[in-house]
């Protein structure tokens, strides 16, 4: 199976290019962004050596559906989705924090809790919780956005004290984050899933706050299967989940957590294919539609053709 690992386009009026961990972002005339969601995969802030077929398409199409389904809550940056792996949108000035919201004690929060911490990002947690327990209420645990290296936990108090975000804007970001998580939870429930935790990124343009980047994808969110959730908790069994956590777990089990001196384990074709299948499974589970694989024979030329057509109309 073919995968898109990198792109090298030169679009008309292209004014900038940025290569992120997963996305290649082309700026057009300093007005629009063409975001190509590649098949690269990252974990522990490290881009892994092998790309995952159809991962970019899965992420882009899930994000497009959820952005469309939440635009009554908060306006978003999207102007067009001309290709299964591409979104074109307005340029926004991003806030320098990511709004992480958690309804359950899982992943990073659980690792902190199990190490004895009872406060995450300034939010207190009660004693006696188990991994994957539902929290008394959803909590927001922001992180700083690192241009290089690891994102760092930060409290609301520190964000305001350091002037990273104004109090007026931060309270609006909180309001949007809770509302988006509630909507995502409701949509997931209809598909037999639990939206465990997720993150949102926001930016501004012309004084308006916009929701930017992807939302509710397996790269930005963690999902459990609702059926059997409580039985598994009662029996102290691992939850059946659809998220990138299974990739992190495989890496941890093979001695890699992104720390200095550690080497990424070999990603065999079997591992790559299994990750691809898990991404497609999540798409079909949450969207409720059969995943239709886009033509992968000439991915770059397909994308270029579709983007050029779209740019003519903007």
From TrEMBL:
Pfam families: SAICAR_synt. One of its GO terms (cellular component) is cytoplasm. It is an enzyme of class 6 (ligase). Gene3D superfamilies: ATP-grasp fold, B domain, Phosphorylase Kinase, domain 1. It catalyses: 5-amino-1-(5-phospho-D-ribosyl)imidazole-4-carboxylate + L-aspartate + ATP = (2S)-2-[5-amino-1-(5-phospho-beta-D-ribosyl)imidazole-4-carboxamido]succinate + ADP + phosphate + 2 H(+). The keyword Nucleotide-binding applies. This is Phosphoribosylaminoimidazole-succinocarboxamide synthase. The lineage of its organism: Bacteria, Pseudomonadati, Bacteroidota, Sphingobacteriia, Sphingobacteriales. The gene is purC.
């Amino acid at each position: 199976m073919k995968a898109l690992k990198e792109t090298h386009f030169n679009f008309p009026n292209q004014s900038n290019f940025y290569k992120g961990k997963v996305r290649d972002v082309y700026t057009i005339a300093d007005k629009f962004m063409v975001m190509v969601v590649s098949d690269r995969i990252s974990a522990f802030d490290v881009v892994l050596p092998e790309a995952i077929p159809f991962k970019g398409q899965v992420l882009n199409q899930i994000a497009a559906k959820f952005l469309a389904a939440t635009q009554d809550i908060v306006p978003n940056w999207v102007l067009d989705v001309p290709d299964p792996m591409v979104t074109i949108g307005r340029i926004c000035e991003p806030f320098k924090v990511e709004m992480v919201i958690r309804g359950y004690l899982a992943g990073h929060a659980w690792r902190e809790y199990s190490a004895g911490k009872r406060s995450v990002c300034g939010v207190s947690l009660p004693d006696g919780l188990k991994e994957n327990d539902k929290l008394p209420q959803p909590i927001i645990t922001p992180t700083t956005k690192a241009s290089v290296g690891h994102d760092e936990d930060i409290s609301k108090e520190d964000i305001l004290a350091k002037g990273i975000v104004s109090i007026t804007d931060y309270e609006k970001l909180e309001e949007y984050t809770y509302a988006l998580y509630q909507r995502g939870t409701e949509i997931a429930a209809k598909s037999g899933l639990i939206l465990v935790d997720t993150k949102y990124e926001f930016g501004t343009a012309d004084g308006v706050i916009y929701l930017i980047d992807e939302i509710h994808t397996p790269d930005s969110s963690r999902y459990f299967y609702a059926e059997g959730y409580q039985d598994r908790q009662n029996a102290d069994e691992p939850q059946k989940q659809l998220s990138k956590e299974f990739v992190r777990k495989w890496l941890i089990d093979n001695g890699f957590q992104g720390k200095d001196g550690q080497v990424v384990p070999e990603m065999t074709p079997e591992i790559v294919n299994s990750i691809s299948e898990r991404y497609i499974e999540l798409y079909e589970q949450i969207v409720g539609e059969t995943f239709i694989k886009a033509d992968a024979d000439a991915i770059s030329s397909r994308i270029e053709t579709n983007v050029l057509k779209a740019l003519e109309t903007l």
